[in-house]
């Protein structure tokens, strides 16, 4: 049965057939959201006609309005269209779990053996490559998002706000979203959308159910007297799940400074390593939250607490994704027809450019210099590298990775592999 009775599919697969396809997508979903969306399009639109081109584009536009990983949410929606809530759960979980299993294993190895010279040397090159990947993401998002002079201004103000003034990312999202909403033009030629199939009662029940699934385990941690780190991880990543518009790189921009500076869960180098691991594994890049949760718990109480914190981070990161999709899915056609919502999305996306620029500079300072000082001048925060601590090898690896990415157009995994091996060889033998 389809998730919506008003859609005629060219072919409705069995649940077993659909499950096999979602498993295939889950284990092959390397390369970030663009590659993942392209893979999903190939499998469900081109190869099997489970969705029409317009249905796919409407769903993608809706998912880009949402906080969280748009590629995972798109897969969840496609599963919902085929087999309702069960189909959506299978599609979404299979998109996440293969990568989550790999990240859990790598995080364990990293935490136990991270001080081994070989491990440190391998990650030295990864850091330089990750910096290039972030810069590439910045340029890609900027090209799409900054189509008007107002968008350039929004991006600049967002950068100043988060980098120099430490304005919370959720507040930046709220302000830019409201600005875009009010600036959005009303299109008098909007198409009428049939909403007869939508039930307010079912929507309310879905909201209540998924809010309970998301928040009750978190509340239970506090009631049962769980270690403080589990409650803190759950609370922080629950907040993150609500405001992470703009994809994983926007998440990192908000998360990096908080987990390093405010909470002290990770060092700046470990934060860069976290992104490097997420880039080399299947699944959404936002799985970096799982790695951060693991390290926070591991440092606080060892392996078992690390595993528990990783599970908590996973739960509060992805449970909201199912909430957004299952609540919003029946309304997608209507939402896609609202110009003010599109205006809000464009403004938020422009702000994300400034936020990713913040992330790029922050990463660059901590990758290319071993000494970085944080200075407060009233409300202004300044990050000042110690020029005497420049890492020339990291600079060289960054230049090489940039050449491979922008000149030779190599893929992410190849660049990470070359930078890692070359960095390890030079660090160990020179």
Structural features, described:
By secondary structure, the protein is mainly alpha-helical. It has one domain. Helices cover 75% and strands 3% of the residues. It contains 17 helices and 2 strands. Strands 1-2 form a two-stranded antiparallel sheet. Strand 1 and strand 2 form a beta hairpin. Helix 1 crosses helix 4, helix 4 packs parallel to helix 12 and helix 5 packs across helix 16. The chain is globular and about 65 Å long.
Topology readout:
Layout: H1 15-28, H2 32-46, H3 53-65, H4 70-113, H5 117-145, H6 149-164, H7 169-183, H8 200-223, H9 228-243, H10 248-262, H11 268-279, H12 288-301, H13 303-328, H14 332-335, H15 339-368, E1 372-377, E2 380-385, H16 392-407, H17 412-429
Summarize the structure.
The protein is mostly helical.
Helix-strand pattern:
HHHHHHHHHHHHHHHEEHH
Which sheet architecture does the biggest sheet show?
2 strands, antiparallel
Number of helices: 17
Domain module tally: 1
Relevant terms:
single chain, 430 residues, mainly alpha, two-stranded antiparallel sheet, 75% helix, globular, disordered N terminus
């Amino acid at each position: 049965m389809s998730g919506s009775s008003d859609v005629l599919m060219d072919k409705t697969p069995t649940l077993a057939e659909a499950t096999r396809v979602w498993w295939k997508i889950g284990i092959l979903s390397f390369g970030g959201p663009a590659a993942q969306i392209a893979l999903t399009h190939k499998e469900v639109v081109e190869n099997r006609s489970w969705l029409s081109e317009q249905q796919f584009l409407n769903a993608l536009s809706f998912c880009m309005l949402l906080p969280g990983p748009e590629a995972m949410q798109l897969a969840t929606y496609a599963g919902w269209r085929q087999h309702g809530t069960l189909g959506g759960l299978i599609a979404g979980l299979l998109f996440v779990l293969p990568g989550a299993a790999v990240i859990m294993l790598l995080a364990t190895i990293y935490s136990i053996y991270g001080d081994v010279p070989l491990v440190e040397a391998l990650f030295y090159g990864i850091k330089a490559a990750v910096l290039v990947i972030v810069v590439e993401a910045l340029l890609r998002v900027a090209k799409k998002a900054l189509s008007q002079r107002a968008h350039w201004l929004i991006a600049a103000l967002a950068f100043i706000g988060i980098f120099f003034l430490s304005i919370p990312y959720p507040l930046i999202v709220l302000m830019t979203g409201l600005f875009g909403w009010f600036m959005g033009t009303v299109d008098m030629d909007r198409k009428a959308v049939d909403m007869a199939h939508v039930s307010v009662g079912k929507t309310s029940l879905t909201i209540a159910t998924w809010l309970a699934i998301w928040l009750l385990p978190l509340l239970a941690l506090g009631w049962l007297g769980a270690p403080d780190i589990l409650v803190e991880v759950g609370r922080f990543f629950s907040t993150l799940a609500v405001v992470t518009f703009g994809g994983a790189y926007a998440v990192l921009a908000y998360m990096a400074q908080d987990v390093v500076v405010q909470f002290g869960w990770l060092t700046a180098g470990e934060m860069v390593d976290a992104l490097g691991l997420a880039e080399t594994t299947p699944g959404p890049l936002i799985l970096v939250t799982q790695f951060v949760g693991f390290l926070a718990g591991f440092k606080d109480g060892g392996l078992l607490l690390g595993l528990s914190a990783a599970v908590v981070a996973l739960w509060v990161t992805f449970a909201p994704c199912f909430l957004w999709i299952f609540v919003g899915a029946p309304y997608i056609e209507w939402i896609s027809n609202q110009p003010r919502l599109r205006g809000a999305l464009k403004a938020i996306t422009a702000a994300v450019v400034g936020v990713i620029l913040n992330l790029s500079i922050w990463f660059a300072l901590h990758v290319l210099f071993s000494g970085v000082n944080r200075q407060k001048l009233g409300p202004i925060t300044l990050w000042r590298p110690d020029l005497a601590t420049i890492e020339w090898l990291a600079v060289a690896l960054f230049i090489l990775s940039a050449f491979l990415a922008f000149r030779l157009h190599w893929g992410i995994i190849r660049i990470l592999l070359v930078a890692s091996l070359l960095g390890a060889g030079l660090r160990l033998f020179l």
